[in-house]
Structure formats: structure tokens, C-alpha cells
Write a structure and sequence with these properties.
It contains 15 helices and 20 strands. By secondary structure, the protein is an alpha/beta fold. The protein folds into 3 domains: 202 residues, FAD/NAD(P)-binding domain, CATH 3.50.50.60; 88 residues, no CATH class; 95 residues, Polyamine Oxidase, Chain A, domain 2 (Alpha-Beta Complex), CATH 3.90.660. The strands form 5 sheets. A 7-stranded mixed β-sheet has the order 8-7-16-17-18-15-19. The chain has a 5-stranded parallel β-sheet with strand order 10-3-2-14-20, with helices on one face. A 4-stranded mixed β-sheet has the order 1-13-12-11, with no helix packed on it. Helix 3 packs parallel to helix 11, helix 3 runs parallel beside helix 15 and helix 5 runs antiparallel to helix 6. The two termini are 24 Å apart.
Length: 465
């Protein structure tokens, strides 16, 4: 194990690795590579780690300074860890991210499960129900409302996602129920797949996740140290057989005899007969002509709808709350964590971090007035629920995320309608990320598609998956 890989594996927080042509040659990578991966987010790093773990020579390239994409993390000289938003993982070690790490013979270390997660509903904080019994007891709803909600969960458990991918959650609900009270809390089911609008989210996607959550007995897990833990471990596995080259931009997908033959970047040319494109699909046409793809594929890529988010990191000199679990909005599309309460590694001693995110309106185009109105809505809610937070800030970081989730799970963008991982028109090209046909939602789609792409490549090479 070289010193750099060892440092990464031990969680040093070092992300910026810049591989030169000489570095690649010294590793035997200046010749024919088994795969080049474009994009160093969850999907690209996950696929590269799986292939390297199987003994293949790989190179990951990304034009950014850091690995991580929309889940990147960095630490500053004062001892603060700043993430691009806050990233948890559905179903914790029983989820899709956990499965990928098990394939690597590794694991994600999760924080102890918190039993004090909260919901925001009608401008109040409520204990978040756990499992059907929790929903049966919650004072958020009347007894009749609770019974209706239990019946809804039973119907979800008995339904097949494939029967409902093309219908919305509100259509699924109104097919059997009429309670307006329960209809008000449907956004809680939608936000589980990051699309809280019941008239917009695919019922099949919600059903699929709720069934998996009920079977797993856990809804979410928070990795110790945040996303840096995952990327450090993925880098360690990639470094066993390959390299990660940052600040390098892919310029062209090289084709010979109708199939992939390599990648030309602003620094080098990489020879390979397999390329994994691990970025949002609309960016694909920066490196290959649209004529290589079908009209249906192009139409899909051109019309992909993403979500946008406004995020704040707040620093105080004392703990404003003792809540360790996450907070979700039911009738306001927000989520929050008081990170330092459960994981002191995020801040220097004596400092406390909380991260708050709120979805920007659908179709957000960068309008500063929309940002201003959304910020006011978020801060008004915080001031009402946690009046000591905003007046006592010592530091604040604001992020406007034009792209939060690359794919909103509407019926049209639900799993059956997203493109396959193996490109059917360009031999040797694979797609990974949250805009393709992986399982789950958000980062889970990226991890799932990474496993599918790696499995396909290893199968083609006659290697066990």
C-alpha cells in the first residue's frame, strides 16, 4: 500500500489527486486500459472501485478539484468539514450503498441510530413515527386519520411498483381513500424519494422504497464523518489498480470501427474499449455527436427535469438543540440535521453545525427573487421552531444548488423509462448516475447503476461478478 492510498483510507479528507501521464505509465496505465470512467461522483467512483477490486486497470477523470460531484466534502484549516448539502443513505447498511461496499469487502461505518428524529407539520415539531405502530400512535392525526394511514401502508405493502410507475402518488391514494387529513401528510411519503409533491411523484417509485424500508426495518443511516468516509474508501480501492485524475476535462469520445476506442481529454489520450459516462446524461453530447443515438434517447435527455435546492450551514458557539436525528418537513419541503450533536468531527471543539436544505420551486431558473422568497420561508420556519438559532450565529454558509437531484422521480422519469446502463447504440459505452436505470432514488440510483455497469463489464470479460 503506498502512502497516499493509506492516508486516503484512514480518512484524512484529502481529495485532490492529480495523476500525470508519467504516473499512469509507472502504474502500467499508459497502455490499453480496461475502462475509463468520466465523472468522480458516487456512480463513477463506485463503478471504478468495483472494477479495480476485480483486478481491472481503470482511470477516473473529472474536471473538478474534488472527488464527490454533488456529494463532495472538504475540510478547512480551522477544522470545519463542509459538505455540498447533507448526505444520508437510505436503509443504512441494508441499503444499496451498503451493498456496493460489501462487494468490495468493505463497509460504511454509520452513526448509532438516533431515536429522536422529528417532523415539521403545521409549523410544529413532532416525533417522527417509526414503523406502522408509530403511525398508529402519532398525535399528528386523528384516530380515524391514523387508521386510514395504516390502511394506506398496508395497500402499499401489497402493491406492485411496476403497476404504478406511470401513475402519481395522489392517483394511487385516491383510488382507495378519501381522507383529506391523510392527504395532507402524503408529501412525507414523496420526500422519501425527494419529490414531495404527491401530484408529481411516481407512485411506483414511492411504493418500491416504502416496501424496501418496511422490510429493512430502518429508513436512513448517517455515515460517520459524512460523505468523505465513502469517497476515501472508494479511492483506496481504485488506487489498487488505477488512478483518479482531477482537474481534467473529457473532450471527445474516440470511436473506431463503430465502437468506443478511447477518450481524449485536455491533458491526454486514453486508450480503452470501455467508457463509463458517470455524469448527467444531458452532458454526454459535449463529447460525442448526437447522431450516434436514437431520437427517443435524445428526447429523453433533452427533457430531463432536475430538482434544485437552497442550503445553509449554520455555526453557533453552543448547541441550540439536543436533537441527534434528522428533521423532515411534511408541509414544507425541508430537511435538517444538527450534525455536531451526533458527530463532533464536523466542527472544532466548542463549535456546533447544523445544515438546513429546502427545495426550490420546480423549474427553478436561477431567479434571485425566488431564492430570496425561499430563504425567507426557511428562516421564518427556523425562527419559529428554534428561536435561539439565527440570532446567535457566528458563521453562515449559503449554497444555491441549481441541480440537487439530477432526475425527479415523476412517472415519465421513473425507473422503467430511464435509459439502460449499457448503451444499445454505441458498443463499449455505459451510463452511470442518477439519470439512468438504477434502483432507488438519488445517490442510490448512482450506486445501483455502478454495480450494474461493473457487472456487465466483468461478465463480458469472463470474470465473476
Amino acid at each position: 500500500m503506498d502512502n497516499l492510498a493509506s492516508m486516503l483510507y484512514k480518512g484524512s479528507g484529502i481529495h485532490s489527486i492529480r495523476a500525470t501521464t508519467r504516473d499512469l505509465a509507472e502504474k502500467g496505465l499508459g497502455i490499453m486500459l480496461d475502462a475509463v470512467i468520466i465523472g468522480a461522483g458516487y456512480g463513477g467512483m463506485g463503478a471504478a472501485a468495483l472494477l479495480a477490486h476485480a483486478g481491472l486497470m481503470v482511470v477516473v477523470i473529472d474536471q473538478s478539484l474534488l472527488v464527490g460531484g454533488r456529494a463532495s466534502s472538504m475540510s478547512d484549516e480551522e477544522g470545519y468539514r463542509w459538505e455540498y448539502g447533507a448526505h444520508s443513505h437510505r436503509l443504512a447498511d441494508k441499503g444499496i450503498a451498503g451493498e456496493l461496499f460489501r462487494r468490495l469487502g468493505d463497509e460504511i461505518n454509520f452513526l448509532p441510530r438516533a431515536d429522536d428524529a422529528k417532523l415539521i407539520f403545521k409549523n410544529r415539531l413532532w416525533e417522527r413515527p417509526e414503523g406502522p405502530l408509530g403511525y398508529l400512535r402519532t398525535p399528528m392525526l386523528s384516530l380515524m386519520g391514523r387508521l386510514t394511514l395504516i390502511r394506506l401502508l398496508i395497500k402499499i405493502k401489497r402493491s406492485r411498483p411496476e403497476d404504478w410507475y406511470d401513475r402519481t402518488l395522489i392517483e394511487f391514494y385516491r383510488a382507495s381513500f378519501t381522507s383529506r387529513e391523510v392527504e395532507e401528510v402524503l408529501p412525507l411519503l414523496g420526500i422519501s424519494v425527494m419529490c414531495p409533491d404527491p401530484a408529481k411523484v411516481s407512485a411506483g417509485e414511492v411504493i418500491d422504497f416504502i416496501k424496501r424500508m418496511l422490510a429493512a426495518g430502518v429508513s436512513v443511516g448517517e455515515p460517520v464523518g459524512g460523505s468523505v468516509q465513502l469517497f476515501n474508501k472508494l479511492q483506496f480501492h481504485i488506487e489498487s489498480r488505477g488512478r483518479i485524475s482531477l482537474e481534467e476535462k473529457a473532450l471527445e469520445l474516440i470511436m473506431e470501427n463503430g465502437r468506443v476506442a478511447g477518450v481524449r481529454t485536455d491533458r491526454d489520450v486514453y486508450r480503452t474499449d470501455r467508457v463509463i459516462f458517470a455524469a448527467r446524461l444531458p452532458l454526454l453530447f459535449e463529447i460525442i455527436d448526437q447522431a450516434a443515438f436514437s431520437k427517443d434517447f435524445l428526447t429523453y435527455c433533452e427533457s430531463i427535469e432536475n430538482s434544485s435546492c437552497l442550503s445553509f450551514d449554520f455555526i453557533t458557539n453552543y448547541p441550540v438543540s439536543d436533537i441527534k436525528g434528522s428533521i423532515l418537513g411534511v408541509d414544507i419541503p425541508l430537511w435538517a440535521r444538527f450534525q455536531t450533536n451526533s458527530d463532533p468531527s464536523f466542527t472544532p471543539q466548542g463549535k456546533y453545525l447544523s445544515t438546513w436544505g429546502i427545495m426550490l420551486p420546480w423549474g427553478f431558473d436561477g431567479d434571485p427573487e425566488v431564492v430570496k422568497a425561499t430563504e425567507k420561508r426557511l428562516k421564518d420556519t427556523i425562527s419559529h421552531l428554534f428561536p435561539n438559532l439565527l440570532p446567535n450565529l457566528t458563521r453562515e454558509r449559503k449554497l444555491v444548488m441549481q441541480v440537487m437531484n439530477g432526475n425527479v422521480l415523476t412517472p415519465r422519469q421513473s425507473k422503467p423509462h430511464r435509459p439502460e446502463i449499457v448503451c444499445d447504440s454505441v458498443p463499449g459505452l455505459y451510463f452511470v448516475g442518477d439519470t439512468v436505470r438504477g434502483d432507488g432514488c438519488s445517490g442510490d440510483i448512482s450506486f445501483s447503476s455502478a454495480m450494474k455497469a461493473a457487472d456487465s463489464i466483468l461478465h463480458e470479460k469472463g470474470l465473476r461478478t
